[in-house]
């Protein structure tokens, strides 16, 4: 009985697939039109960032996402649909300007403890370069829905990746360079330090391990 059910299910699937292929050839390539609409201005919302943000780095990376759905007919497993999406992600990182920045001067060197670097969310993706694939015996019928379901989960997955220690560490030196440039310009623009053109600036971040801050004055190192 189980074999008969499976044979019937496969026969129905094959028949439906053949009919859909025939219809697609009959209809030919559809004419497509597109348009872009914006919401009314009274629906816009502007949110001020308290204190502002300093953009410090960007990571561009290809990311792939995959999911598999198991299908049954009359309780009998009949196959899977595997969906895969590839995107070009752009991870941006920033430092908040509102929190206290600890700065001290020692031996003609400004030592700065800046707030920790945070990912700017949501992570951006290049929509023109999204690649979507579906495979499996049932992909003709379920592929589009499974791909849409997978795509809806991408934003949350990318946000989680952006905050991974490995990603934060990967961009850290670029962020350090940006903050060093920012602090240098600010210091030189300050009336008190206009003659400090030959002074150095060393930047550390509050989330760096304590041992990494060994060269900073101990009073400035705040336990996490």
Structure description:
The chain is 33% helix and 32% strand. It is built from four helices and seven strands; from the N terminus they run αββββββαααβ. Strands 1, 2, 5 and 6 form a four-stranded antiparallel β-sheet that branches. The longest helix has 26 residues. The C terminus is likely disordered.
Terminal CA distance: 65 Å
SSE sequence, one letter per element? HEEEEEEHHHE
Number of distinct beta strands:
7
Which word captures the global form? Answer: elongated
β-sheet strand percentage: 25-35%
Mean pLDDT: 79
Poorly predicted segments: 20-29, 218-224
Provide the structure class. Answer: alpha+beta
Number of domains: 1
Radius of gyration from the alpha-carbon trace, in angstroms: 28 Å
Report the major sheet. Answer: 4 strands, antiparallel
Question: What percent of the residues sit in helical stretches (DSSP H or I)?
Answer: 25-40%
Tally of separate helices:
4
């Amino acid at each position: 009985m189980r074999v008969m059910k499976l044979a019937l299910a496969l026969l129905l699937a094959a028949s439906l697939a053949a009919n859909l292929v025939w219809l697609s050839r009959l209809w030919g390539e559809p004419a497509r039109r597109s348009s872009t609409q914006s919401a009314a201005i009274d629906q816009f919302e502007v949110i001020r960032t308290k204190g502002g943000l300093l953009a410090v780095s960007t990571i561009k990376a290809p990311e792939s996402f995959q999911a598999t759905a198991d299908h049954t007919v009359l309780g009998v497993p009949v196959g899977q649909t595997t969906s895969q999406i590839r995107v070009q992600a752009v991870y941006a990182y920033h430092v908040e300007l509102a929190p206290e920045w600890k700065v001290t001067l020692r031996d003609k060197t400004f030592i700065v403890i800046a707030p920790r670097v945070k990912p700017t969310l949501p992570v951006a993706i290049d929509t023109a370069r999204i690649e979507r694939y579906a495979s499996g015996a049932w992909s003709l019928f379920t592929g589009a829905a499974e791909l849409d379901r997978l795509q809806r989960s991408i934003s949350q997955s990318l946000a989680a990746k952006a905050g991974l220690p490995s990603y934060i560490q990967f961009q850290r030196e670029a962020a350090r360079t940006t903050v060093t440039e920012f602090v240098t310009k600010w210091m030189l623009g300050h009336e008190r330090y206009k003659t400090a053109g030959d002074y150095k600036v060393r930047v550390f971040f509050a989330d760096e391990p304590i041992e990494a801050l060994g060269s900073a004055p101990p009073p400035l190192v705040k336990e996490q």
